[in-house]
Write a structure and sequence with these properties.
Elements: H1 2-22, H2 24-53, H3 56-64, H4 69-81, H5 88-95, H6 101-126, H7 130-139, H8 141-150, H9 152-160, H10 166-174, H11 179-185, H12 188-203
Helix pairs in contact: 2-9, 4-6, 5-6, 5-12, 6-10, 6-12
Amino acid sequence: MGKNKRDLSERSRLYHHYYKRTGGYTFLGKNVIKLLLVLGVFGALLYVLTTHVIDLNTIMCDWFTRLPVVLIVATLFLSETFLGLLPPDMYIIWAKSLPNTYLMVFILALSSYVGGLISYGYGTLLYKIPTIQYWVEEKFALQFTQIRKFGGLLVFLSAMAPLPFSPVSVVAGMVRFPFRLFWTIALARFARFFLYAIILYSTLSNFDTC
């Protein structure tokens, strides 16, 4: 136990010096500011849209009441596993219409988290295929450079941002980012879902259950 604590302390010290030397903390600070600005703008736009432009109750109820809960959660899981094309916030809003709202937010977060782990897994496999390796290095050159340089910082930011988490997870697998560190940092996905739920539910106080 003592050895593990010493190892963790030593790794933390090395990461601290590395990020300090390479500008990792500056990178983190700039992106956290961007994230907060995005959250602010997102909340403001959503409030204006749902208050003056669209009837969110009608839209959400029409979309989701026709489908079983299991199927709705499954669509998010598949999206978070493959490219993350569907916005998780739509599902968080839907969860507000259910009796056990925050339990469903947890289930949605778990689906997203597991989807990210699977994305990491097939990223490690896909990178063994030369054609895919070349294509991905061309398309995600910036992500490759950033993950190799800043690693955990980028994984944390992508887990918290209102952007697809799956692509960064795939790239993390491809560059062989340490899996134990990846799944630990990716737990921030749960914080992301609950944080956004709090913001969304306070903004959408006029949204009722179906």
